[in-house]
From TrEMBL:
The keyword Membrane applies. The keyword Signal applies. Residues 497-517 are annotated as: Disordered. Residues 299-502 form the RagB/SusD domain. This is RagB/SusD family nutrient uptake outer membrane protein.
Amino acid sequence: MMKNLIKSKAAVLVVLSAVLFFPSCSEDFLDRPPEDSYSVDNFYQTDRQVASAANHLYSKPWFAFISNVAWPIGEIASGNARTWDARNQEFSNYSITGAHGTLTQAWESLYAVIAQSNAVINTLPTAIGPDVSEDVLNNSIAEARYIRATAYFYLVRIFGSVPILADNSDYVLEPVVPRNPVEDVYEFIKRDYQFAIENLYDRTMDTDVQAGRVSSNSAKAALSKIYLYEENWSMAYQLSNEVIESGEFALLEEYNDLFLEQNDNNVESVFALQWANTGIYAEGNAIQSFYASAGITGFSDGWAALGPSIDLQEAYETGDERYYATIMEPGAFYPNINGGFTVPETVNHQGTNVGIKKYVIGNPSNGASQSYPNNTYILRYAEVLLINAEAAIMGGGPLEEGIESFNMVRERAGLDPIENPTIEDIFHERRIELALELEFWYDVVRRGPEFAIEFLGNVERGPYNNDTTPPTVDSQKYVPTVEDLLYPYPDSEIQSNPALLEDPVPYDFNANADEEN
């Protein structure tokens, strides 16, 4: 029987200081720490040591969310992918309850990212030696604030109103924590990203910035996306345009090259999670375990747990080069998988008559079952261009520049430019450009309940019936309600923190100013 979920990595180390040694309460998300981290007593005495403070934030605490949660929400719920697996199919037919373990993993993993980020942010300033430079200290804190903001961005899009924790130690003696309004969560995120803009290294000025680490322009790109969600078109345009003009990022010439392991941390990568079985990150991801067919990985995984929906397959335009890099058709040949791999004619992920290529890399020399070294993109330059295009089309900047950004993405895919793209063209382009990159659900929902309900209710989620010639579609369509556009809080979290069921409480930014600045 196919494994449906991978166990979260056990907490085996301690982050930065005793800040995370809370009274034992296994259900308390304040005591979420460490899906993994390490001891730092008397460690941060030099610039080099302080510069390593955020290393673990790029991988370990994200494991359960990326490996088990991000694709059921981002791809199955949105209709980009389908499955017969009963548990994950509940994301497709909108029957998720707070008892669903995947939601618990989302909450736990994302709050683990926040807890470990908070440990860096709040403990590092008092843990460093006298010879550490202020720039190095501020850069490491800014990395942690960038990553904390990103975790909150996922939380607010999945659950809506959630508790804001700037310092977990504040709640050790009072673990019942109120949730805060959505607009306050977004304000908190914006302040974190703004701090990151002001304190992260500018890679265009400092070429010694380690590959894979976020930069000041990475933070501008992330903040432009927040303004896009808030429909602040002028700020979304301004920040995305500053990133474009910086020259720090560019499109790779070939779309398929984005998903080759040897091209991790390429010029298009704005922020990516850093996976590896060895070295400073020391953690693999498990996306390939679910995306790949049996036999490709070289291990006992390769569960083909989801397949590209018929709806997604039919959304591609003729000649779109992104199809080959995203979806495996029968007979297609991939020279970079296991020395050369031809897709079997019988490929049939979950009744879709195709397979998945994106994030499938085969059997790498430094991989293991459920633990693969290829990066997971959180933000790419192509998306920055599409943010720029959407903001301009919606009136936030010069239309001709937005159209140019839009068509750069299309032309890289081998498609003709569109002279006057609409918001529907942008939506479609985002779907195809970012397909199976764990993002589409959020794009659908942010367009508002009326659009989301109509779109999601009309997505074809059924399989092919191969008993007919040619195959026909056993249609499956499910219409969500407004309530389905946010997920319920996990039951276990409500039990340990009943304040989640109470009205949101405004976050006191003044009282927490010292923690934020």
